[in-house]
Design goal:
The chain has 15 helices and 20 strands. It is an alpha+beta fold. Helix 12 packs antiparallel against helix 13.
């Protein structure tokens, strides 16, 4: 097992990794920009290293600075968290070249799943169902029109190197397709440096269902059930729950078995998430995230399995600590992403937190690095923390979530807590009857 791990991230996920390491007897190294010198993970880590100025490109994305921090502190491994360099294949390769373990999948698998066209082809070969669409990239309007005619409108134009909803445009007719292609190509080039596009059938009211997988270097691959991430705004997840209200046990077991078999066939290593659109009883692969997800705590809540601990064990060459037969699902869990944003306009609200009080009680967990007196910097994402509640069933979970939101106090900045309180009162959400477009339709009343 590792003696010292460097955490190449910030905020709540850096604190989450630190806590897992502490419980395993592993010392931690926090890295931080000058804007994060007072961050909670920096205060609690065994060592800390400043790696640059506030701009992420000069600090958290600065690979030479991170390598230097490893060498200075003697860290044997790096946990990338999520975001930043967590899905950067070259970073994983450079760490290996310096005899430092990357706590994550191989560079080859990161690179494969980072290319959406190659990923779709790979999982199709492995038996995972995919959305109908182009077999590869589309380079001309004529080629795109031919694909659209075959799949039927509406179609979704997507960036091959995309993520987070960038480089995605919908065309509902042949007349709209050229404009969608042009806009997606421009956006993809600006965001990812790659304007390669592909196309898929646009599903009108699907759920966003993702399956958590874990695989080790000893030939084992298991699934930990699904998460429902359908409450989204501009393709960004807002609330997640597990298990999905839309699936029954048979559908859950079927897709889990398909995914586990595929990951074993791929020779995957570590944790990962296979994301699907689910409509009319059918699953359609959209992408794979080769890292820990923001919403991993809801899976931990219903399985009792520490995913970060398993990541570290697997990276150290150990077997995962459970088998598929030992995975059981208990109750229901929901996670709300509490952001420093206006709850109606979603404008970021960095600044000083003047008062901070988190909810507690049975089945309540808050992952956050915030505290009263902490100043939220304007340079990074607006996530303050994650409220995760667990109950014996979905109804109990909703009641606990409502109570916890009432207890949660964050003064001095705007937050999205009022939005979640509104959602709790909506009958469709209470009944679990929603899809990936539902939240944006709900929010239209503010516009």
């Amino acid at each position: 097992m590792f003696e010292k791990v460097l955490i190449a991230n910030r905020g709540e996920i850096a604190l989450r990794v630190h806590r897992a390491c502490q419980e395993m007897g592993i010392k931690t190294v926090a890295v931080h920009s000058t804007a994060d010198e007072d961050a909670m993970h920096v205060r609690l880590a065994d060592e800390s290293v400043c790696i640059g100025p506030p701009q992420a490109s000069e600090s958290y994305l600065n690979i030479p600075a991170l390598i230097s921090a490893c060498e200075i502190t003697g860290a044997e491994a790096v946990h990338p968290g999520y975001g930043f360099l967590s899905e950067n294949a070259r970073f994983a390769e450079i760490l290996t070249e310096h005899d430092i373990t990357f706590i994550g999948p191989t560079a080859d698998h990161i690179r494969l799943m980072g290319d959406k066209i190659a990923a779709k082809a790979a999982v199709k070969r492995l038996g995972i169902p995919v959305v109908p669409g182009s077999e590869g990239g589309v380079t001309t309007d004529a080629q795109a029109l031919a694909v659209a005619e075959e799949t039927g409108y509406p179609v979704l134009v997507k960036a091959a190197s995309g993520g987070g909803g960038r480089g995605m445009k919908v065309a509902r007719s042949a007349a709209e397709l050229p404009g969608a292609l042009s806009a997606a190509r421009t956006e993809a080039k600006a965001a990812f440096g790659d304007d390669t596009l592909y196309m898929e059938k646009y599903l009108s009211q699907p759920r966003h269902i993702e399956v958590q997988v874990v695989a080790d270097s000893h030939g084992h691959a298991v699934h930990l059930g699904e998460r429902d991430c359908s409450l989204q705004r501009r393709h960004q997840k807002v609330l997640e729950e597990a298990p999905s209200p839309a699936l029954n046990d048979a559908a859950r077991a079927e897709i889990g078995a398909i995914v586990s078999k595929a990951m074993k066939g791929l020779g995957y290593l570590g944790v990962g998430t296979i994301e699907f659109l689910y409509e009319n009883g059918e699953f359609f692969f959209i992408e794979m995230n080769t890292r820990l997800q923001v919403e991993h705590p809801v899976t931990e809540a219903i399985t009792g399995i520490d995913l970060v601990r398993e990541q570290i064990r697997i990276a150290a060459g150990l077997e995962m600590s459970f088998t598929q037969e030992e995975v059981t699902f208990s109750g229901h869990a929901i996670e709300c992403r509490i952001n420093a944003e206006h709850s109606q306009t979603f404008m970021p609200s960095p600044g000083l937190i003047t008062d901070y009080h988190t909810p507690g009680g049975l089945g309540v967990r808050v992952d956050s690095g915030a505290y009263a007196g902490y100043r939220i910097p304007p340079y990074y994402d607006s996530l303050i923390g994650k409220l995760i509640v667990h109950g014996r069933n979905r109804n109990e979970c909703l009641m606990r979530l409502r109570r916890s939101l009432d207890e949660f106090v964050v003064d001095g900045v705007d937050t999205t807590i009022p939005l979640f309180k509104e959602l709790m009162a909506e009958p469709e959400f209470q009944n679990g009857d929603y899809h990936i477009h539902w939240l944006e339709q709900f929010l239209e009343k503010y516009n």
